[in-house]
Amino acid sequence: MSDPETTPGTAAHQKIDTSVPHSARIWNYWLGGKDNYPVDEEAGDAYTDVFPGIVTIARSSRAFLQRNITYLVAEAGIRQFLDIGTGLPTADNTHEVAQRIAPESRIVYVDNDPMILSHARALLYSTPEGATAYVDSNVLDPERVLAAAAATLDFSRPTALILSNILGHIADHDEARSIVKRLMDALPSGSYLSINDGSRGFDPGFEQAQDGYNKSGAVPYNLRTIEEITSFFDGLELLEPGVVSVTQWRPDTDAPDARIIAEHGGLARKP
Q1: Superkingdom of the source (predicted)?
Q2: CA dist., res. 268 & res. 249, Å (int)
Q3: How far lies 241's CA from each of 62, 179, 192, 199, 227, in Å?
Q4: Mean pLDDT, the chain, as a whole number?
Q5: What does the pLDDT read at residue 180?
Q6: What's the rounded mean pLDDT across residues 85-93?
């Protein structure tokens, strides 16, 4: 296994604040990870007291992403991934799923959190045949992200862009759409876009819990309607079954029947 490349940026000079809960660490806690602090566990438990289903949403979101990547590598032949809004590493990260099937796969992770940066070198390893890099940058600056990622990825070749639970952190919907378009415009025909985000209009309990969380002083995460999530794929060819609850996107044949949850996503190809 080879060490990943790490591009220092904004997070490199920030300190990790363990006195206030952090969304990435709370998400890690819900996924069953260990990279969190008591303050994150307290916030996560307070959320689940209002809406226990958040753990199902977190884990179903992760499973959706793993099925996306498996399809992209095994069936679509994709060998390059740009995963923006990486979050803290857990089991079966993008590079692990992709390189398990195709060891030559190349992956660039992007995030701008100091704690995630601190874990990048320790946890994000690559097969010798492939490559794994970490870029310390912000989704709000797509041109900088693309420039840094180009050191590892060849953007003349089809690439999968992964935006998993990151667009909800961009409050303005038009701005979020613009960022997605700017990123996809830089990728060639045959590239793919994978998006999943929390959805509004399906579970009042989830909406109440999330609205309360947003008012707590934590970095807000904005739920969107299925129409708004679908609009991120404008101009692309959505794969069947389209934008659906993540539990309904090509579930494993041996998976138990899963109910619809308030987390929607899809996968689309750039013509």
Answers
A1: Bacteria
A2: 12
A3: 18, 25, 15, 17, 15
A4: 87
A5: 98
A6: 74
Q: Report in angstroms the alpha-carbon separations of 228 from 14, 217, 231.
A: 33, 25, 5
List, in order, residues 6 or more apart from 219 with CB less than 8 Å away.
Answer: 22, 23, 169
pLDDT at site 3 = 42
Q: How far, in Å, CA of 113 to CA of 86, rounded?
A: 10
- How many angstroms separate the CA atoms of 271 and 268, rounded? 9
Res 12 pLDDT > 50: no
- What's phi and psi for 133, nearest 5 deg? -130, 155
Handedness of CA 75, 79, 84, 90 (dihedral sign): positive
Helix, strand, or coil here: 132?
A: strand
Burial 53-89 (b: 16+ CB within 10 A, else e): bbbbbbebbbbbbbbbbbbbbeebebbbbbbbbbbbb
Quote the percentage of the chain above a pLDDT of 70.
86
pLDDT at position 168, please?
95
Neighbouring C-beta atoms of residue 181, cutoff 10 Å:
14
Q: Are 224 and 249 in contact (CB under 8 A)?
A: no
Neighbours of 151 (CB within 10 A): 12
Give the distance from CA 187 to its chain's centroid.
18
